[in-house]
Specification:
single chain; 387 residues; alpha+beta; Helix Hairpins; 5-stranded mixed sheet; 3-stranded antiparallel sheet; 8 helices
Amino acid sequence: MILYLLISLLTGIIVTLVTDSFENIAVEKRIRKELEQEIRAAATSFKNFAGTSTPKELVNFVRAFSASALSDKIIASDPVHDKTPDRGKFAFLFSYVAGDERLDFYILNSYLSDELAVLDNPELVFGLFVTVIVFTFIILYTEKKKQAVVLQQQFEEKHEEFKKVLEEHEALALLGRMVATLAHELKTPIATISNLVQILPARIGDQKFTSRFVTLTTEELNRIRQLVNNLLAYGKEIDVGNEEWIHLSPFINEIALKNSLQLEMPQSVDIYGDRFLLNLLFDNLMRNSKTEGADKVQIKLRTEKSADFSTKFLLEDNGNGFPAQGDLNTLFDPFITCHSSGAGLGLYLVKKIVTAHDGEVSLYRMEHGAGVNITLPRKRVIINEQN
């Protein structure tokens, strides 16, 4: 408050002094004009009274008039014969010219000082008024600013509360979807294995049945394993610490054969990455293709000259493809799927794994089948000579 009061008083003083200064300028201008008019009026009266007069007589009269009537205000000086008055005591007023004669008039500084106003009551009242106005404005501004800060803090607190509640609701909703997905996905393979186990004792000697039992049980267990791997990868950050150079053709071909798919890859290439994560990535893509009725997957390579991303892996199958409508980017969200069955985690994990390997991934539609574009940086790819 003391600081605000001092600022207000200083502002009031400055305004008062400026106002007084402008008023003094106006007063001085008026005094100068009145003195000049008075001298010129006296000269006119002399010319009218004397009839004919010489310029010298007129100048002498004006000088005598100023010396008698205005001696306490001005002095007259002949610029030719008289010494120039002291500028510390006198200020130039004007020059009176009659023919070849000239007379300079100077006003006394002491007279001007006496006539100029020195902080009269109206100016003091105005300064006090300005002080009160400024002080009031500062107080109101400060209070408004404090209120704004308080409101901002309250808003941020409420925002954080709403954000926390929303995150909790989203987490609960996501947990519910995850549980529902897990229950749905595990129900079928568990039921299949359970039925086979119940029948097995009665048909243990049936070679064809036992062979089929092993095949179906293995497939269903692999399905459960894939779901568990996806869920484990979903619930943690991707770590690509165990990296190595992987020859891609045999690596992917093994995954394709496991999913009963034919692989076409015309170029030989090595990728630097985490073997487990890359296996999970391509296994998810192959399973998606198989689920959509594909029996063949082709991998095409495109090289770019950009500084960041240089190699594109285009995985194209001959399955049913993506839905004709809708944004394909939403398929990368967890628990979003276009399959009649599936957890909706495959493409989500594909994106996480590609991003962890400094890459990018996108989906595109084809006339017959679906396409996945995986782009990796130059440091992770070595393209060998064609097979």
